[in-house]
Inverse folding.
């Protein structure tokens, strides 16, 4: 099990142990002084003999390489900005499934639609829900109603005790 502490803190502990080993202290004594297992100090001693104190430096963990390169991500942003219809979809609405299809079509890289959200968020995009509006909506008629009918309705108070709708 990995000991507690950041990589830098553990490196400091290894370097202290390495200096103590260089001073001639025994593996068990160094382990007791720095709070490590003797088997760990033994590994430190081998590394110290092969590469000096530099061999005790923290080694960065690489992790998995990204499946989309930075240039591909830039190209994806350009296509996303152009819109779904420009990318060949029927409606003007991006969904995670559509973005996953687009990535596979453009770059040959398959992502689960649920993961696409993390990818988009890392690229600075946010999830937004479009407003629901009726297809039959007529903005001119709505504007006329707001200017003429609504003020007229608002001026007339209903009879006392009755609600006006």
């Amino acid at each position: 099990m990995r000991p507690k502490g950041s990589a830098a803190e553990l490196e400091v502990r290894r370097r202290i142990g390495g200096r103590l080993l260089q001073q001639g202290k025994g593996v068990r004594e160094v382990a007791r002084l720095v709070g490590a297992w003797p088997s760990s100090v033994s590994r430190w001693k081998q590394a110290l003999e092969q590469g000096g104190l530099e061999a005790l430096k923290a080694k960065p963990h690489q992790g998995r390489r990204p499946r989309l390169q930075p240039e591909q991500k830039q190209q994806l942003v350009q296509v996303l900005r152009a819109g779904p219809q420009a990318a060949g979809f029927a409606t003007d609405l991006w969904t995670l499934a559509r973005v996953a299809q687009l990535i596979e079509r453009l770059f040959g890289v398959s992502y689960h639609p649920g993961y696409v959200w993390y990818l988009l968020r890392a690229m600075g995009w946010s999830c937004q829900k479009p407003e629901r509006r009726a297809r039959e909506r007529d903005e001119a008629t709505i504007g006329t109603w707001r200017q003429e009918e609504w003020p007229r309705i608002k001026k007339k108070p209903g009879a006392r005790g009755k609600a006006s709708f």
Observations:
- The chain has seven helices and no strands.
- The first helix runs from residue 7 to 22.
- The helical segments are 7-22, 27-34, 38-51, 70-82, 96-107, 113-122, 139-155.
- The chain has a mean pLDDT of 90.
